[in-house]
Design goal:
Elements lengths: L1 H14 L12 H9 L3 E5 L3 H6 L1 E2 L2 E3 L2 H6 L3 H7 L5 E5 L5 H10 L4 E4 L4 H6 L4 E2 L1
Parallel strand pairs: 1-3, 1-4, 4-5
Antiparallel strand pairs: 2-6
Length: 129
Amino acid sequence: MNRFVYGAVAMCAVSGAACAADHTTDSLETVKKSVADGKAVLVDVREDGEWKDGHLKDARLLPLSEIKKGVPEEKLKKTVPPGSVVYLHCGSGIRCLAAAELLKKQGYDVRPLKDGYMGLLKAGFPQEK
């Protein structure tokens, strides 16, 4: 457990984000339903190479590296429509916390998922390649 905490702190330090965001308490069933109903979007903050290796069916790609550089407003609004609940995921649940902090500062209702990509697949989220 301590290695996980130290790893999370290290990732926050590397990312440059404060990491004050917490993982959402929304259940994965709530996430699936909200995305299916169009009430929320699922955003993958992994990098392009990870995305190409496989991604969740309804996810939209917005890599943390792009968020940190500053995504052009038009692209950001297309990927993450204002007013939508934004569920973020990554490989292990750490990078999405850094992304959440940055997007939260821009006014988004972000809810980072604790489960990473493989955990979401195991939970029944469909994969697309």
